# Entry
Amino acid sequence: MIVDILRSASQSIRANLMRSALTCLGIIVGVASTIAVVSVIEGLKANIGEQFESMGSNALTVQAYTPIKQAMTGRFARIDHTDLQLIEDRVEGIIDVTPILYLPGSRNGGTKYKGNISTATVLGTSASYIRLDNWFPEIGRFILPQDDQTRRRIAVIGSKVREDLELPEDPRGEYIQIMGEWFKVAGVMEERGELFGFSQDDLIMMPYSAARSLNGRGRLLNIEIRFKAENIEELNQVKQRVERLLRKKRGIGENDVDDFKVQTADQLLDNFSSFTTSVTLVLGGIVAISLLVGGIGIMNIMLVSVTERTREIGINKALGATRQFIMMQFLIEAVILCLMGGMIGILAGYGLGAGVAAMLPGFPPASVPLWTIGLALGFSATVGIVFGIAPAAKAAGLNPIDALRYE
Amino acid sequence: MSQVIKLEAIGKRYLMGDQAVDVLNGLDLIVNTNEFVALTGPSGSGKSTLMNILGCLDKPTAGQYLLSGEDVSQFDENRLAQVRNQHIGFIFQSFNLMPRMTALDNVAQPLIFSGIPLKERKRRALEALKHVELDDRADHIPAQLSGGQRQRVAIARALVTKPDILLADEPTGNLDSKTTDAIMNLFEALHQEGQTIVIVTHESEIAGRCKRVIDLRDGVIASDSFNEVSA
Ligand SMILES: Nc1ncnc2c1ncn2[C@@H]1O[C@H](COP(=O)(O)OP(=O)(O)O)[C@@H](O)[C@H]1O
Ligand SMILES: [Mg+2]
# Structure
């Protein structure tokens, strides 16, 4: 019997190809757009996760934080050299304390070599930087402790800087001009590629001390301090120790707001996650609309065919079909259509997502989580079944003669 | 002679708003095996209503209906479906074929509901098509057939389950006189083979070719007579 119901259902699908195709299309649109959007977001998320993982989960970052209220008065919080020294001297259980000083204005065509200009970000840091970022030189060397001590004017550059400045393949010993001063290239870092279309290799690093002097005495200094907890279990204690120390130094009371932030890699990741969550919500709205459009499409076709189908049900009932048989046939028909449309939709959606990801340079590859497939398929199937089955259920409950008369 | 149909005080009342319309008023009727009955009467006299009740397509609002001795007025939905499937062959004025199915599939359709396997269904359907001389049109869909051919497919579909009774509501109402004649010849042949048949008609020529004529007026039997002249 079930074989006959299956056969009836597939016969009906084939006999009404146009209607079946349109129903499928509705499902395909809903599922494909959902999957396309979500796969791109998920690809991004996974990629960001990887980026932060390379930072190491025992890493901590101290940054200045200006509460909005305060920012409006024009007083910006800062982390400066004295904070760095305090942390280095007074906090136990940390290693690789590394300052990062971004040189403002360095993007404005600051770096030159034989008439070529690089807009790379310039930062001053110390030898331990590479251990925090797990990023190592490919050619030459990174900044050494003695470079920092002697304020040596050397620079380690990202691969994009070498390209932009048209430096030789091995640029060691070449001199480049950064903000008017000459620096000797000591090394080139491994290529990292792009993130969100931004090169991660467009970076010039110099000794922290050299950057400070380049920054000029008059300028107010704001640095970022990174370090690692020696022992991962102590991560939170270390974090609190640093917070307490900085609070005391700045005279911040119990109830005052900190003008700095100490964050673990996980917390930084959380910041990014909350960003992607809000992006996901917006895109989720788009997804909901496309599912709705697909759903309305399915619904329309189902409702349009009610007249025709009611007569068909009337004939079958007159010939001796039971209510159960008719319901099963419609259910199976709806399920087949939903599965077909769903499968095509998943493939099309994934293709679309992968295509978008591939077209944007540096965009991470798309990935499809199972729940999306579940959501998209579940929704379309529900619409298909509700609007396919409800009229059928009504017709199947009629007297055969009333179903036959249905106009 | 056994009774195929026995109606006792059958009534059908439609409620139109707060007004009740009695289309059938306490109708008694017995149809025996191998009878060939014409049900006549003016338009609106309740012929179709009666036929639909006989075919279990509709339910009476009063009275008792015995089909081959069983009180079908007490049956539930599923048993009624079974009765429609196995005991009744119904033929409509408008054929009521599935437009996208071939003649063969149309004829085989009721056998699905009897739980007959596919191969056997096809075999019996082809046999029924042969019976109405349409086995050469088995692969055609209704749109590719003439009106008379469509009605013969519908008759084959009604016959395929070997029902106790064949009920036809104005089967030639949509057909020209030549085709009508052919269809009537077919009914006569089926009658000769022992089939019990009830045909609704308002044409006296058709009624004249049946053995018994029942005249319906305002929901009651006005006359019930046997034709003297017949083949
Ligand atoms: N579903 C219905 N609701 C209300 N009145 C109906 C319905 N079906 C039939 N009737 C009425 O019942 C009467 C008999 O109809 P019908 O049996 O079709 O007559 P016939 O077939 O003899 O022309 C008509 O007056 C018709 O209007
Ligand atoms: Mg009628």
User: Anything to note?
Assistant: Residues 2-51+271-405 of chain A form one domain.
